[in-house]
Amino acid sequence: MRIGELAKRAGTTTRALRFYESEGLLEAQRTPNGYREYDEHHLRLVREIQSLQAVGLSLEDARPFVACLRAGHESGDSCPDSREVYRRRLAEVDACLDRLATVREFLLARLAFQDPCLVPEPKEFQCSN
Amino acid sequence: MRIGELAKRAGTTTRALRFYESEGLLEAQRTPNGYREYDEHHLRLVREIQSLQAVGLSLEDARPFVACLRAGHESGDSCPDSREVYRRRLAEVDACLDRLATVREFLLARLAFQDPCLVPEPKEFQCSN
DNA sequence: GCTTGCGTTGACGTGAGCGTCAAGGTTTAG
DNA sequence: CTAAACCTTGACGCTCACGTCAACGCAAGC
């Protein structure tokens, strides 16, 4: 299948797929006229990337998973590097949950006119997805 | 006090303070030589902005609070617009907590070789702080 | 033959909150 | 007097995952 169809079936855009390729995450065959040609394996790979993004992982974080699949493994998360990414993300999510619980208490207190004082985070703190 | 001292006392940078001014959040007097001049009210305002950022609000969201203070109120969150911002953020935080709990379960299951299938969010979903 | 709808590469734009020069003027310590 | 340490404005850089043109080639239906 060509890039338009893959995009449609994966629920994304051709731009995103070309971007993945430029990042070395999605390599495609070329037909004689220069068109990219994909198969079902590519579709599964794109779905894997989307799944990783859905848990808040970056495309950089997706590299170990792609490498794992390219190494012939059944699933992208059966390799040590991939599992390490999962563990790291889990720790981030836990920290994020803690922080958001604190923020929630702060907001509730403020809305109840209690005037608390939120302790600011020492370093830049980021929660995503 | 001048901009360097205000930055130091607020634990931020001169660049940030000038940026706040460019956004209309922090207006300063000028000495004859063009230097910005601040007082304790400005310091409290900067602290207020930092506090709002700490709960994940944007500088845009801080506008109602600044306006509330400029209108002569004791605290920036005693005006309806400010409280509405709090309520909106609270809803965001709640949604974020739900989403992160789901993500957490997904990660735990994957790390336990359970191979679940994470339902992707329909629209772009963002959690911050 | 012409239009329409695919595909290609390349380059710039987006948002948020500043960081980081650059090139100068001012104040202060020695 | 001089050098260091302030201050000024202006402009570009940064992150991240693409969106949005621009300008072009290729293929199929009428």
Automatic annotation (TrEMBL), chains A, B:
A GO term, aspect molecular function: DNA binding
Keyword Thylakoid attached: no
Residue ranges of domain HTH merR-type in the record: 1-68
UniProt key word DNA-binding: yes
Keywords: DNA-binding, Transcription, Transcription regulation
Family matches, as PROSITE patterns: HTH_MERR_2 (PS50937)
Pfam family, one: MerR_1
Listed name of the protein: DNA-binding transcriptional regulator, MerR family
